[in-house]
Amino acid sequence: MTQAELIAALAPSRLPASALDPGWREALALFGLGLLAGLVLALLLRPLLRPRVSLVQRIRATRGQPAQERLLSIARILGHLPPALRDAAYGAAPPPEDPLIERIARRGR
Question: pTM to 2 decimals?
Fold first, then answer.
């Protein structure tokens, strides 16, 4: 059986003729569904596409906290406490000034 014979043996389409030739209403509905799908996709990807706050900005945001809490916050941000800040964090040394804390934290990544 050739391909032409196979196609000729197929039953005719059961869809109405208007469904085989889409009009402007169907095109508009497809466009609306595409917009809706794009919106859902954008909402799903939103957490991944959000700009991240830089490390420096997160460290600067700790300004104004008491010294012990600020050092703990910096340790949480960096994942560790730089050795130069450990004595101040445990109260063995006076806490350094804000600019010095930020400089040490940036160096201690």
Answer: 0.52
